[in-house]
């Protein structure tokens, strides 16, 4: 069991540290021999093109119930219980490249990597996705810091009673008529 805990902790650290990858030593100039990426290369931190950023209609009540139950479980600090709401496999993106969650340790780790609990403030639908606005709260085992009371947004696809895709959205949806 200690090895399993160490694996989960390591994966959580890796998930949290992905945003810092590529940071260099400020005292030394960085050199690279790699050619610039072609203009068509996508930013690996960008949302996949099929993920909507705003609701276009009402949310599916079944998806809302799954998401509310997941949030309640996470707010209690039960990351193992919260993990069971994610399908295997599922996709997850929270300021990282899109991660494929293939096993129990990974789905526990993504829940442990979320520093805050949250309550659903609103939900709307956009095709197969539920667009959620959360109000962040403290949760046992997390470190929400100054995030308490702040709002965050997400696009979640629920299928078969489980979360199949979870994406952190920008804090403000694009303005009407603005390209996504």
The sequence of SSEs as H and E is HEHHEEHEEEE
The backbone outline, from C-alpha atoms, is globular
The strand count comes to 7
Helix content: 25-40%
- Tally the helices: what do you get? 4
CATH level-3 fold name of the domain at 55-174:
Nuclear Transport Factor 2, Chain: A
CATH-defined architecture of the domain at 55-174:
Roll
Main sheet: strand order: 1-4-5-6-7-2-3
The fraction of residues in strands falls at 25-35%
The biggest beta sheet is recorded as:
7 strands, mixed
Rounded radius of gyration (Å):
17 Å
Report the structural category. Answer: alpha+beta
Q: How far is the N terminus from the C terminus?
A: 45 Å
| pLDDT < 50 runs, ≥5 residues | 1-34
Tell me the name of the CATH class of the domain at 55-174: Alpha Beta
What is the average per-residue confidence, as pLDDT, rounded to a whole number? Answer: 83
Account of the protein in words:
The structure is a single chain. The protein has a 7-stranded mixed beta sheet with strand order 1-4-5-6-7-2-3, with helices on one face. It is of the alpha+beta class and 180 residues long. A hairpin with a 2-residue loop joins strand 6 (151-159) and strand 7 (162-169). The protein contains 4 helices and 7 strands. It has a domain at 55-174: Nuclear Transport Factor 2, Chain: A (Roll).
Features:
alpha+beta; 25% helix; Nuclear Transport Factor 2, Chain: A; single chain; 7-stranded mixed sheet; 180 residues
């Amino acid at each position: 069991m200690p090895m399993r805990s160490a694996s989960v902790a390591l994966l959580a650290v890796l998930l949290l540290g992905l945003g810092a990858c590529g940071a260099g030593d400020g005292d030394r100039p960085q050199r690279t021999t790699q050619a610039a990426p072609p203009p068509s290369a996508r930013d690996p931190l960008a949302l996949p093109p099929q993920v909507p950023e705003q609701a276009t209609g009402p949310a599916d009540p079944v998806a809302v119930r799954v998401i509310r139950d997941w949030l309640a479980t996470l707010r209690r600090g039960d990351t193992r219980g919260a993990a069971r709401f994610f399908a295997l496999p599922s996709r997850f993106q929270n300021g990282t490249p899109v991660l494929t969650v293939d096993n129990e340790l990974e789905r526990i780790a993504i829940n442990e990597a979320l520093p805050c609990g949250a309550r659903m403030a609103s939900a709307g639908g956009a095709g197969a996705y539920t667009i959620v606005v959360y109000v962040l709260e403290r949760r046992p085992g997390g470190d929400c810091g100054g995030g308490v009371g702040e709002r965050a947004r997400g696009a979640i696809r629920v299928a078969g009673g489980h979360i199949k895709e979870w994406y952190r959205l920008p804090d403000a949806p694009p303005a009407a008529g603005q390209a996504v």
